[in-house]
Design brief:
The complex is a heterodimer of chains A (311) and B (253).
Chain A (H helix, E strand, L loop, with lengths): L1 H6 L5 H6 L6 H27 L5 H20 L4 H25 L4 H23 L7 H6 L10 E4 L3 E4 H19 L1 H9 L1 H6 L4 H42 L3 H26 L3 H19 L5 H6 L1
Antiparallel strand pairs in A: 1-2
Helix pairs in contact in A: 3-8, 3-11, 3-12, 4-5, 4-6, 4-11, 5-6, 5-11, 8-11, 11-12, 11-13, 12-13
Chain B lengths: L5 E10 L2 E11 L4 E5 L6 H8 L7 E6 L4 H4 L3 E4 L13 H13 L7 H13 L15 H14 L4 E5 L7 H16 L3 E5 L3 H7 L2 E6 L1 E7 H4 L2 H8 L3 H15 L1
Parallel strand pairs in B: 3-7, 3-8, 5-6, 6-7
Antiparallel strand pairs in B: 1-2, 1-4, 8-9
Classes of the chains: A mainly alpha (311), B alpha/beta (253).
Chain lengths: 311, 253
């Protein structure tokens, strides 16, 4: 018993579930919103990535971001958000482009091409860091695990004088809206080129352009989420909401809706768990959405394990 | 002057510098049911994919109703091979048939009530209307093929390109499909079907395209379905040759 009480901090409902919404609303609302925006943007777009069997492209992008960041820093000599963002997105787009080129111009399959590209780019990043290390201020912990809690340290900036929020929360909110908006706007060509690229091509659509647009958007989402959840956990955010929702419904619009619910619950419960156990919020959110995947896998109607045993 | 639904000149396709189709010259007349036959690897699917620009053309040109494919695309309907798509994809039967309307909607148009009615009518035509809300993974092979056919009907095209629509379907579906194709032909549509079964090819189609990387012959079935030309198409493949010999013998009786 004593081991458990040492491992798990004392639980106070008041402190864990009430105070973040009353007394300490200011820091916690930003942690929650950041978690929600990241998980929502990743999950919504990730649903298409999963169904197009490109789940690990997000992984490749998140790892190739490193040289982009270093080069952007060396060129601009600053750590301003814009050059960093452009450098990282550039590296992400380069990754997907190179994977495509290697796959098409050789007999190497996509998964191996992916392995070649992102490890090479990551290695270039490592080389650059060790060459110019003293000038580049990169927090390796942040790269790996992300620091979602850092949003609370940022100064608030005003949005059209309407309300104030930390800059990164505003940026992530814009990215989420962009993702949801673009997917809704181009829903039909996106679905038809994901399900049946041949038909899309025969109708005069351009599935290749759709693929590049999707990859660029993925690079933007991964790079924006990177700082908050790190290079590894961003994969959880990309893959879990879509796969969990796909266990619960057969209709893509419903699945996309469920990913947003998962993002909301994941961010909410993740924030509370992180507060209770004093752990990384990104880790807590990932664990919560994994838990939701597990529940769906076991209990989902028709596709769940229990249903298949007892039907 | 009558329009030529499909014309190719010196159509050549190569994968990795290895040619899979060369010098295909055809003029397909309107209102015909055309079978594309040839051995495995003869480039049958490649031919129709090259026509639609799904695989890049290495040389030559394609015209659809006298125009480039891009301009004529709205008048062309396509039925891909059934295995070419992921049937677990989270869409239902109605969603798939509605995709047939997407080519007319532009990039951001919305599906109208009229589109839905057309899709329902097409589903009804292939006997799949009761399954409209069914998830596509819960269908048999024959039902999946009928859904693809309904989607092609929903495209309301004048030229149809179908890739092996008879593979893996039950006898009832095969009969239903061929009846539907004949009805389309009766309405002046032109239909090209990739087909690999020689005995039925002879009875199903008005015209045959014998293909083995090159165009061996193209003409009315009764003129082209000869032992000599088939032998030229299939080379020395004994099993097929004996099959052909049997068919020809049956015919002559």
């Amino acid at each position: 018993m004593s081991i458990w009480s040492e491992l798990i901090p004392e639980f106070s409902f008041e402190q864990v579930f009430v105070e973040p919404w009353t007394e300490f609303l200011d820091p916690f609302i930003w942690i929650f919103l950041m978690g929600f925006f990241v998980t929502a943007a990743c999950g919504f777009l990730g649903t298409f990535i999963v169904w197009r069997r490109m789940a690990l492209v997000g992984d490749a992008i998140s790892h190739s971001v490193l040289p982009g960041l270093v080069i952007a820093f060396l060129v601009s000599q600053s750590r301003d958000t814009l050059p960093m963002f452009l450098g990282a997105v550039g590296a992400g787009v380069l990754t997907t482009g190179l994977i495509e080129v290697i796959h098409q111009k050789s007999r190497i399959k996509t998964d191996a091409a992916l392995g070649i590209v992102f490890t090479t780019l990551f290695a270039i990043g490592v080389v650059l860091v060790s060459l110019y290390g003293e000038n580049v201020d990169l927090d390796t912990d942040c790269v790996l695990y992300g620091e979602l809690e850092h949003v609370t340290l940022e100064p608030l900036s005003s949005v059209f004088g309407l309300f104030e929020a930390p800059g990164s929360v505003i940026r992530m909110g814009v990215v989420s809206l962009l993702v949801v908006g673009l997917v809704i706007l181009f829903y039909r060509p996106l679905v038809v080129s994901s399900f049946d690229p041949g038909l899309a091509r025969s109708m005069g659509m351009n599935p290749a352009a759709m693929h590049h647009a999707l990859m660029s958007l993925l690079a933007i989402v991964v790079v924006s989420s990177f700082e908050a959840v790190g290079a590894v956990l961003v994969i959880a955010m990309l893959i879990f909401p879509g796969t969990t929702a796909s266990l619960l419904s057969d209709r893509l619009p419903v699945i996309l809706g469920i990913t947003l619910v998962i993002a909301f619950l994941g961010a909410l419960l993740g924030m509370h768990f992180a507060l209770w156990l004093d752990i990384s919020t990104a880790g807590a959110i990932s664990t919560v959405i994994f838990g939701m995947f597990l529940l769906a896998w076991v209990f989902a109607p028709r596709r769940g394990l229990l249903w298949q045993v007892f039907r | 002057m009558q329009e030529i639904p499909l014309e190719t000149h010196d159509l050549t396709v190569a994968y990795d510098k290895r040619p899979v189709l060369y010098g295909v010259d055809v003029q397909v007349p309107e209102g015909k049911l055309v079978g594309i036959v040839g051995p495995n690897g003869a480039g049958k699917s490649t031919l129709i994919k090259a026509i639609m620009g799904i695989v890049p053309i290495t040389g030559g040109w394609v015209k659809v109703f006298g125009e480039s494919f891009a301009r004529g695309a709205k008048r062309v309907g396509y039925v891909p091979q059934r295995e070419s798509v992921d049937w677990d994809f989270p869409v239902n039967v109605m969603d798939v048939v509605l995709m047939g309307r997407y080519g007319r909607l532009g990039l951001m148009g919305r599906v109208s009530k009229a589109d839905r009615e057309i899709a329902e009518a097409c589903l009804d035509k292939v006997g799949m209307l009761p399954y409209a809300k069914r998830q596509i993974s819960n269908l048999s092979g024959g039902q999946q093929q009928r859904v693809f056919l309904a989607r092609a009907l929903a495209q309301e095209s004048d030229l149809y390109l179908m890739d092996e629509p008879f593979v893996g379907v039950d006898a009832a579906t095969e009969a239903a499909i061929i009846e539907l194709l004949r009805e389309l032909k009766g309405r002046g549509k032109t239909i090209l079907v990739v087909h690999h079964d020689l005995p039925t090819a002879q009875t199903y189609f008005d015209m045959l395209m014998l293909l083995n990387m090159r165009l061996v012959a193209f003409g009315p079935t009764e003129e082209v379905f000869t032992q000599e030309l088939l032998q030229k198409t299939y080379g020395g493949r004994l099993t097929i040759l004996s099959e052909v010999a049997n068919t020809v013998m049956k015919e002559s009786k």
